[in-house]
Design brief:
Elements: E1 9-10, E2 17-19, H1 39-43, H2 56-66, E3 88-91, E4 94-98, E5 109-112, E6 120-122, H3 127-132, E7 136-137, E8 148-150, H4 153-161, H5 167-170, E9 173-175, H6 176-184
Antiparallel strand pairs: 1-2, 3-4, 3-7, 4-5, 5-6, 8-9
Amino acid sequence: MESKNHENFQCKCCGNYSLGEFPNGTFEICEICFWEDDNVQSDNPNFIVGANKISLNKAKENYSKFGISNPNLIENKIENNDFYPGMKVKLNDEYGIVTNEKNYDSYGIILWDTEKMNDLENWCGLFGSFRDSGGIIVDNKYEFKKYIMQITPADNIVLAKCGVKSTIERFVIFTRRCFSYCFFS
């Protein structure tokens, strides 16, 4: 998915930064969990009638169990076929997260949770090889232990004020060093 303004927005169901437009009734479909952005369902998370035929709360429950908003759409699930932005992975005892950067129309640039600043590795178009090398997808709720931190909307504003323009750093991740650099350099 190519974002119109080079920033992705968070899906109300899965929480991944996979939407190209600010979610609130755009009816854009998340390419990760297949939730269709419906402002009525966002405002009323138990409301069943709408674009999705299930409530937002049920969709969130389904996503945590099955990795998709509606199990009837399981054949559409891309998790076993390719990388997507925000996917958390593990390879050779190192954890990382797939950025929203694309290379040749594919995701797969991984920021690894290591001491090395901006430890990026390009696996674009190589999902099968990644799996064959022992790479696995880890639970989206996994919290990084070393250098990668989840970025909050407030952090995003601070980073923008510090002049951090890279979509890699502003996507959903940044290193503690990068954040410290903004404040102390």
